[in-house]
Every structure is written in C-alpha cells, then in structure tokens.
Design goal:
By secondary structure, this protein is an alpha/beta fold. The protein is 31% helix and 14% strand. The chain folds into two domains: 210 residues, 3-Layer(aba) Sandwich (Rossmann fold), CATH 3.40.50; 175 residues, P-loop containing nucleotide triphosphate hydrolases (Rossmann fold, 3-Layer(aba) Sandwich). The chain is built from 15 helices and 15 strands. The strands form three sheets. The protein has a seven-stranded parallel β-sheet with strand order 3-4-2-5-6-1-7, sandwiched between helices. The protein has a six-stranded parallel β-sheet with strand order 8-13-12-9-11-10, with helices on both faces. α6 links the parallel β3 and β4. The longest helix is centred in the N-terminal third of the chain and has 15 residues.
C-alpha cells in the first residue's frame, strides 16, 4: 500500500482497496498507476484477473476528486467514459468504481441493453461523473439526447480485443468521434491482434505501452487435464465428473447458446442444479443466474463465451471446457475463472475427434502439453497413426484416491510438479478418474490433422437487436447492449 501512497492517492481510496482484498499492488497496478496519474495515454496488455480495473479506476477517482469540473455546466458532466464489450463486465467495472469511490462524492452509473432504460436515463439526468457503458445502449442514448460527451476528460476501452471480435469497432469509432480531442485515453486488451493495434494507433497519442502477459499465459494456480471423448458421450462424461463431491462450484463453457441450453437441461434431468447464461437470456435472467451461482444456490453455471472475461466469482473449483473455443486465447480466459485470489483451481477439457487440431493450437499458445486422463469409461483413443497415451497397467484401471479440494479458505494449495517425466503419475503408473486429480502426460508426437471444430460460431455470433432509436435494424453480436 505504500506504493499507492507514493502516487498521492487519497486515504479513502486506500481503505477501499483494502476492503476489496488487495494487500499489495499487483504488477499492472504498479506499472500503470503512475502514468495514468500523470495524464499519459496508455496501451495495456494484461490478462483478466490481474487487477487492471483498479489500475485505472483508482487514479481516475483521485484525479476527478482532486480537480473539479470546469465551470459552465448546469449539472454534473460526464468526465470519464468506460466502454466494455459485455453487460457483465460493465456491471463489474461499475461496481468497482462504486466500491473504490464510496467515500467520495463522485457519482457513477452503468448503462447497458437488455433492461429498461428508464432508470438509466433518470441517473443520467441527475448528472454523473463516471459512465460505464456497452457501445450499443450508449449509441441509443446518445441518439435520444440523454448522453452528452463534450466534457469527457478520460476514455477507457476495456477488453478492446473482445469488443472488436464482437463487431463493435464501428460503434467505438463513432463514439470516439464525439469526444473532445484533448483527452486522456486508456486502452486495455488481453491480446494485441493487428486490429487492436490499428485502433490504438488511431485514438492514442504518444502512449505508454505496458504488458504483463507472462511467458506461459495459463495461470500457474490452475491444474489442467484433457479428456478425449466422442462428441455424443460428452454429456455422460460431464454427469460422471460432476458426481464427485470435490466439484463444489463448476463453470462449464459451450461453444453455442443452444449447446448451453441442451447441457443445462441434461444436468437438471440428472438432478444437478444448473443454470445457463448467454445472450438469448434476458438481462434479468442472466443477473439472477449469476447471483444464484455466486451465492451457492446453483452449483453449476453453463455459459457461452459471454463469461470468459469479466466474470468475477470467488471459489470456482472447476472450469470445464465442454467444447473447445475456436480462438485459442479464449481458452486462457476461460480457465482463468478458477485459481484466483491465491487459491488453486482445476480446468478440465473435453476434446472430440474434430477438436484435436484446436487443442494442438492451444497447447502451442500456453507452451505446454495438457495432461490426458485415460482411465474413464468414455475414453476415445487417438487414431492408430498417432502414438497412443500410456495407460497405467495393461487392461487395468486407476485406483481412486479420496478427492482433494482445491485451494479452500483462500489459501494457495500446493501445486504438484514433476521435474521431467509425466506429471501426476501414481507410483503404479495408473491415472485416477477423479476430476481433481492430475493426469499423466501424453507422449510427444504430432496430432492428426483433423477437421476444424464443427458447429456454430462461438458466443459472440449475431443476434437480433431489439428497440433503440437512431440506429438501423441491423443484427448485433452476442452481448450487444440493445
């Protein structure tokens, strides 16, 4: 905390940070805060869960509290605009501003689609200092005359790569064109594809570039394993894994919204409490499902990639990739939902024959082979032209040990490592079918050049946008704020 004091942050901000669980600044906070405080434009590359929200929220609150707005405004003008790609992320960022600034007199509000706009417009009419918004709803409110951006001093683009993937680039450019040219701009992105770099070059002025992406992007606190399984057997395998009591809170990712609904229905028929969350659900239904999951009323949340970033839920014991994502970076964000805040977590991946190519690309990204669980009833062998996984004993089954819970009580569990050779291999060479046991490595060797994953595009595909004025009736991607 002394680092924050060096940057001149007010005492109420320090208290807020401590209440939110930070005891020392994270790397992104230490690197970013001095430059944000100095008014510099910033291009930050950082994974979700690294504390970047605090890295921009804290100095913004300090600056706005220390410098009153310019005279000539009849009500509080919007001085900071934060754009996020999804409603869930907007709610999380808005909640952080409210928590960190609870001891100040600054006002913040959140606007996104899927809910009635009347409460949002009333808050805007009273005047706000900080506006957190998704692009679609913001464009609607601007067209209706409820939002005026001529006094914005700071623009933040959060999860810019996701925003571009979802087709918001033109909306972002229109919004930026309405902002004062003299402003501070902060752009944060988990990855830096060419489109993000192009956008950064067009809106940032002499920016400071900060990257805290580790060499191995997969979180060190997450144990990973892959199950090779035929597509038709995935649901039975999922039910089998969830029967383990060590799976206390599981987040399951599917590639499509329809797939999330089918998996949820199957789990409910198996008497497993589960809810689905995706863009076809109303905002109230999504909020309720997420709240039930956070409070433990629902044990399993099935999601499209709407929840890969920005989902802030403590003590998720397991992330299960029911389908592999088409973009390998999304895998990293998915499994980053567990193993947070010093705890350990477990990430399990189902891989059918059409997904093996995608798995190889993911392993190249994270620079490691994901251990394979062989001993389960639905194991699908690798084709004969590829070296097979080593099983424990010929024809034998692994002996199950009592399940080990992951990182309870906020304490970091010990991560088992083997210096050379397969990880997590029992003395007898067998593998357990328990979902929280580390599996043995697959032998080296190329994967078959299987087909690309079949099915619809991942979450983020277009869905009809309802309501709103000042826009043409176009289709908008998942999470579009309508």
């Amino acid at each position: 905390m002394e680092h924050f004091a060096d940057f001149g942050l007010a005492e109420h901000l320090l208290r807020a940070v401590k209440q939110e669980g930070y005891t020392t600044p994270t790397v992104i906070q230490e690197k970013a805060i001095p430059h944000v405080m100095a008014g510099r434009d910033l291009l930050g590359c950082a994974q979700t869960g690294t504390g970047k929200t605090a890295a921009f929220a804290l100095p913004i609150l300090h600056r706005l509290a220390a410098q009153p707005p310019a005279h000539g405004h009849r009500k509080r003008p919007i001085r900071t605009l934060v754009l996020t790609p999804t409603r869930e992320l907007a709610a999380q960022v808005g909640g952080s501003f409210a928590a960190y600034g609870r001891h100040s007199d600054l006002r913040s509000t959140i606007v996104f689609g899927g809910v009635a706009q009347n409460p949002q417009t009333k808050a805007l009419e009273r005047g706000v200092d900080i506006l957190v918004a998704t692009p679609g709803r913001l464009m609607d409110l601007m067209a209706q005359g409820f939002v005026h951006l001529e006094a914005v001093e700071i623009l933040v683009l959060d999860e810019a790569d996701r925003m571009l993937d979802m087709g918001f680039i033109e909306d972002v450019r229109r919004i930026v064109s309405r902002l004062p040219s003299e402003r501070q701009t902060l752009l944060f992105s988990a990855t830096m594809p060419p489109k993000v770099q192009e956008l950064a070059g067009s809106i940032l002025h002499d920016p400071i570039s900060i990257s805290v992406t580790p060499e191995a992007p997969a979180a060190e606190t997450v144990e990973q394993a892959v199950y090779f399984v035929d597509h038709g057997d995935k649901r039975e395998l999922l039910t089998h894994l969830l029967s383990d009591a060590s799976v206390t809170r599981a987040l399951i990712f599917t590639r499509t919204k329809h797939g999330a609904d089918k998996v949820t229905k199957h789990l409910r028929n198996a008497n497993i409490s589960a809810e689905a969350i995706h863009s076809n659900k109303s905002q109230n239904a999504r909020t309720r499902a997420l709240e039930d999951f956070k409070r433990g009323r629902t044990r399993v949340l099935v999601a499209s990639d709407i929840a890969a970033r920005g989902l802030d839920v403590d003590d998720i014991s397991h992330v299960i990739n029911y389908d592999l994502p088409q973009e390998p970076e999304v895998y990293v964000h998915r499994i980053g939902r567990t193993g947070r805040a010093g705890a350990t977590g477990i990430a399990l991946t189902f891989c059918d024959a059409n997904e093996r190519d995608s798995l190889a690309i993911i392993e190249g990204l994270i620079k490691e082979r994901i251990p394979t669980v062989v001993e389960h009833p639905w194991h699908s062998p690798i084709p004969s032209n590829v070296p097979k996984e080593k099983s424990g004993r010929p024809g034998g089954r692994g002996t199950s040990r009592p399940p080990r819970r992951s990182g309870g009580g906020g304490q970091q569990g010990e991560r088992r490592r083997a210096s050379g050779g397969p990880r997590g291999q029992d003395s007898g060479g067998s593998r357990s079918t328990h979902p929280n046991r580390r599996a043995g490595d697959r032998p080296a060797g190329d994967r078959p050049a299987g087909d690309r994953p079949a099915g619809d595009r991942p979450a983020g595909d277009a869905s009809n946008r309802r309501g709103g004025r000042g826009r043409r009736g176009s289709r908008r991607p998942e999470n579009a704020a309508s």
